[in-house]
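Run: sequence + zinc ion -> complex structure.
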Amino acid sequence: MKSAARAALDLIFPPQALDDGPRPLAAGLSAEVWSRITFLDDPVCDGCGTPFEYSQGEGARCAACMARPRAFGRARAACLYDENSSGPILQLKHADRTDLAPLFAHWLSRAARDLLAQADAVAPVPLHRTRILGRRYNQSAEIARPLARMCGLDYLPDALIRRRATETQAGKSGSARRRNVAAAFEVPAARLGQVAGKRVVLIDDVMTTGATLEGCARALLKAGAACVDVAVVSRVKETANRPI
Ligand SMILES: [Zn+2]
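>> structure
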């Protein structure tokens, strides 16, 4: 029990500096916020990270993944995206709380440890440059950078570019989201060498239908990546109308 409690505390307050940022140990959630977050532990679907009620064997996939295989190989999410986890996640995205990013990276290092252990590199889902100008930073890159350092993997901040600013995904159905992101991503010619033959883990903050991540995975595979897996901070249980 003691070690479990310590592990829980480490998730709130990382025991050591995880990043070279100015305030690495300042990041943290109150115990009250943290205790309401639903962390997704094994057993989960190997394809999309959705939790199973009981173990169905290694590599087992949910009905949705069996019916329609994803463009990426495997996915893991650290927690459920719901009214309890959305606060800190939206704060990183919209409220300049970049100090939360190393904490989320720490969660991912745990939730996606098997995928990261087999990977060569991590790459963030890119924002279109017009969005970066508005927001000043890409929240996925803020998470991917310390994660790469923690896991000793290559960090590929610009292996993927978003060719056009896709319309917001909120409120769209799965097929509409897939159309919206079709061909939106590419690996620029100058970055092909970083990707070819590499096992890449894509990083994002929230997975809803997975359409954006699939668009990125297709672009990386087209550029010759050996395989593409996904690690996200949170995933929705089912499509819900939350602001993302
Ligand atoms: Zn699944």
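>> summary
Confidence is low (pLDDT under 50) at residues 14-26, 239-244. The radius of gyration is 17 Å.
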